[in-house]
């Protein structure tokens, strides 16, 4: 009896060892199985692999993101050090480290007052590597592992012990011409990449790209800094708008004319979309007199919080009107309480990982805009959310009704394996697939773009395979839907 028990224990132990690998192999090697992220059902997995295989090499359409266009303006531009590439600019990375008590100064994040921060990029990388385990199970960990392995050929797992070897390997790659941003653009099979640019931006980098390169890197018009009157430095932004538009913005009506002129210029430079970041998707149509009065109070520094809410809501209405006239796709990204950590904001400025989602209401807030413009097929309005409770309750029913309305993919905190699956399950039954707009990577970290698209394509393949297994759609429809999810929906929605 004891011999039988020992034999069973040996068999179980061998199976577990094969599943998890030895401690040495776990420490030393990155393992990316071809069917990763697919479910355990063998039939579903086989169908998912079939669907994924047809989509994995499709060109990447990147209709919304925050990659710096300066990377492509100069053919010889490089990313700098591994730390400059993967840590310092990426709030997904340093917010996790900060949450564990690691000071941003030790990660080389610049301070507003010019105070001392760590300058040794190898030391910063060592801290990152020693704490890379913090990203286990997170989308950031998945993206970075894919990026290290697929882009830079790293075979070792990133740990404190392997940190400097991997740093040297990435640094060696970045020194070679084939790792320049323009070369990676082609290697990644990017068909079009959209940046996000302030209404006051001269687009000088985009002009250099157009003059020296035949790839499609286009701007997106973001007017938040001049239409949200509670923005820090708003009056200075208005002065810059006057300078770049050639229209002296001293009134609400002049503001509208200046915005129309800037939109015209952005469109001339290839833009197909606008983007609007707001705390809430509140809309209200003001009279000309009300809008002028609020603008005047804002110019005097006397506008109230209620003024700011109403003016931003009115300018969303105006932006929809402009989009109908000039054809630019309109995006709204609501629901983020920006700079929640005030001491951190005062020391380091915005975009330091302290933007926190809030509960968001869409049905009542958007009714004025949708009642006026939502039935007009000339408008494409793409909504994003950070409040998942709104997906099946409000957003899917709205998008499933108004011709102008489409739903953007899971954004920010929900741009993840589970977030994407929840989105498909909560939205599709009511809105259908074709009232959504495919995937966008929404990233500042350019080398992570393929990893993000790959994850989205795997999630969609697994979701569609589940529909096939359950008899909801047939395999022929699933193949069509896979092409749509991976490529066609984004091209169509963003007029690319």
Q: Could you please describe the fold and organization of this structure?
A:
- The chain has 496 residues and is an alpha/beta fold.
- The protein has helices at residues 2-20, 23-28, 42-55, 70-73, 82-86, 91-99, 121-130, 139-151, 163-174, 181-187, 204-212, 224-227, 234-245, 252-268, 288-299, 305-326, 342-348, 367-373, 390-399, 417-431, 449-469, 475-493, and strands at residues 60-62, 190-194, 197-198, 217-218, 221-222, 273-278, 329-334, 336-337, 356-357, 381-383, 405-407.
- The chain has 3 domains: 1-31; 36-79 and 181-493, TIM Barrel, CATH 3.20.20; 80-179, uronate isomerase, domain 2, chain A (Orthogonal Bundle), CATH 1.10.2020.10.
- It is built from 22 helices and 11 strands.
- It has a 4-stranded parallel beta sheet with strand order 6-7-10-11, covered by helices on one side. It has a 3-stranded parallel beta sheet with strand order 1-2-4. It has a two-stranded parallel ribbon with strand order 3-5.
- It is globular.
Strand fraction band? 5-15%
Major sheet strand order: 6-7-10-11
Annotation, overall tally of beta strands:
11
Radius of gyration: 24 Å
Largest sheet features? 4 strands, parallel
**What separation lies between the terminal Cα atoms?**
70 Å
């Amino acid at each position: 009896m004891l011999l039988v028990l020992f034999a069973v224990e040996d068999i179980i132990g061998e199976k577990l060892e094969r599943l998890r690998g030895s401690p040495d192999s776990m420490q030393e090697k990155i393992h990316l199985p071809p069917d990763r992220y697919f479910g355990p059902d063998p039939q579903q997995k086989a169908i998912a692999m079939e669907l994924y295989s047809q989509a994995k090499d499709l060109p990447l359409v990147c209709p919304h993101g925050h990659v710096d266009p300066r990377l492509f303006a100069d053919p010889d531009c490089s990313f700098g050090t591994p730390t400059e590439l993967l840590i310092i600019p990426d709030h997904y990375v340093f917010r996790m480290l900060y949450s564990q008590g690691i000071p941003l100064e030790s990660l080389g994040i610049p301070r507003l007052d010019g105070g001392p921060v760590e300058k040794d990029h190898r030391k910063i990388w060592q801290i990152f590597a020693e704490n890379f385990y913090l990203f286990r199970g997170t989308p950031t960990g998945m993206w970075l592992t894919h990026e290290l392995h697929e882009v830079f050929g790293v075979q070792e797992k990133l740990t404190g012990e392997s940190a400097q070897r991997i740093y040297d390997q990435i640094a060696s790659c970045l020194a070679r011409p084939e790792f320049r941003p323009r070369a990676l653009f082609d290697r990644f099979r990017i068909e079009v990449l959209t940046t996000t640019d302030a209404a006051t931006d001269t687009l000088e980098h985009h002009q250099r790209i157009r003059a020296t390169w035949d790839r499609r890197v286009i701007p997106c018009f973001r007017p938040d800094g001049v239409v949200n009157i509670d923005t820090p430095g708003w009056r200075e932004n208005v002065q810059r708008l006057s300078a770049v538009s050639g229209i002296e913005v001293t009134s609400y009506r002049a503001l509208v004319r200046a915005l129309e002129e800037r939109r015209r210029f952005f469109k001339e430079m290839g833009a197909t979309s606008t983007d609007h970041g707001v705390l809430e998707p509140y809309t209200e149509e003001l009279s000309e007199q009300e809008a002028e009065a609020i603008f005047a109070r804002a110019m005097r520094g006397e506008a109230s919080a209620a003024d700011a809410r109403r003016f931003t809501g009115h300018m969303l209405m105006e932006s929809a009107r402009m989009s109908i006239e000039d054809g630019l796709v309109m995006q709204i990204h609501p629901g983020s309480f920006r700079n929640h950590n005030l001491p951190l904001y005062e020391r380091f400025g915005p975009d330091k990982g302290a933007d926190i989602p809030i509960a968001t209401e869409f049905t009542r807030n958007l009714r004025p805009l949708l009642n006026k413009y939502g039935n007009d097929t000339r408008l494409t309005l793409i909504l994003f959310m950070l409040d998942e409770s709104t997906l099946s309750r409000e957003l899917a029913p709205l998008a499933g009704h108004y011709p102008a309305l489409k739903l953007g993919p899971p954004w920010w905190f929900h741009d993840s394996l589970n977030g994407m699956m929840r989105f498909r399950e909560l939205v599709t039954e009511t809105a259908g697939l074709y009232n959504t707009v495919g995937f966008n990577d929404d990233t500042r970290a350019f080398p992570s773009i393929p990893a993000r698209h790959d994850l989205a394509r795997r999630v969609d393949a697994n979701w569609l395979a589940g529909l096939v297994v359950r008899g909801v759609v047939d395999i022929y429809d699933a193949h069509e839907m896979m092409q749509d999810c991976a490529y066609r929906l984004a091209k169509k929605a963003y007029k690319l």
